[in-house]
């Protein structure tokens, strides 16, 4: 019986050593796994921050592009509105140019009629009424007559046909209007043809 107990004791010691050896490696593997887990979490957080920053940059670029597109659309709409307004205002420009010779001929006819002849007085009155009615109709469509006699010469509205010395008038004053000018909504359709005064030459 004593021999059996002695044989069992070495067996028990061997079992305890085996259990100790098995627990040692398991603890080491668990610690390594914990270390890897902590390291992976840090990398994931950095990756999320990078992604967030990238997304914010993309949102900023998209916002800038949207604002540019909106500004371009507004500018295009503004230009289109201006073109339509100009087309509406000056659509009659060519038609106006065709009507002006009619007005010129009525004025010439009125100037040619001798007012001393009673037989022609009724004709002169009729031509004058027709001319006034014609000019009034043009005015309703913003076609304005330029008759600058006695006014300072304006090269933007007048065309000087000649210059005449005149001591009684200021230099660059319109002395005679040879042909009246016209504007359409403020734009010059035809300049007035005029004769302009100049200072007398020094003796």
Q: Care to describe what's here?
A:
InterPro entries: GrpE, GrpE_CC, GrpE_head. Belongs to the GrpE family. It comes from Congregibacter litoralis KT71. One of its GO terms (biological process) is protein folding. With 203 residues, this protein is of the alpha+beta class. It has a domain of 108 residues: Nucleotide Exchange Factor Grpe, Chain A, domain 2. The chain has three helices and six strands. The strands form two sheets. The chain has a three-stranded antiparallel sheet with strand order 1-4-5. Strands 2-6-3 form a three-stranded mixed sheet, with no helix packed on it. A hairpin with a 2-residue loop joins strand 4 and strand 5. Helix 2 packs antiparallel against helix 3. It is elongated, with a radius of gyration of 52 Å. About 7% of the residues have low confidence.
Topology overview:
Layout: H1 2-89, H2 93-112, H3 118-140, E1 143-146, E2 158-165, E3 174-179, E4 181-184, E5 187-190, E6 192-198
Parallel strand pairs: 2-6
Antiparallel strand pairs: 1-4, 3-6, 4-5
Helix pairs in contact: 2-3
């Amino acid at each position: 019986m004593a021999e059996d107990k002695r044989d069992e004791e070495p067996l028990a010691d061997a079992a305890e050593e085996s259990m100790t050896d098995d627990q040692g490696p398991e603890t080491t593997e668990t610690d390594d796994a914990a270390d890897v887990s902590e390291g992976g979490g840090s990398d994931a957080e950095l990756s999320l921050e990078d992604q967030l920053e990238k997304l914010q940059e993309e949102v900023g670029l998209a916002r800038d592009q949207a604002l540019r597109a909106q500004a371009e659309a507004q500018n295009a709409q503004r230009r289109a509105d201006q073109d339509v307004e100009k087309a509406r205002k000056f659509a009659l420009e060519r038609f106006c140019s065709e009507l002006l010779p009619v007005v010129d001929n009525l004025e010439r006819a009125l100037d040619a009629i001798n007012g001393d002849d009673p037989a022609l007085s009724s004709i002169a009155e009729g031509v004058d009424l027709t001319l006034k009615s014609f000019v009034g109709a043009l005015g309703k469509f913003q076609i304005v007559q330029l008759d600058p006699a006695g006014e300072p010469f304006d090269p933007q509205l007048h065309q000087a046909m000649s210059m005449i010395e005149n001591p009684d008038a200021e230099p660059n004053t319109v002395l005679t209007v040879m042909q009246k000018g016209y504007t359409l909504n403020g734009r010059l359709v035809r300049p007035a043809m005029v004769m302009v005064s100049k200072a007398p030459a020094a003796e």
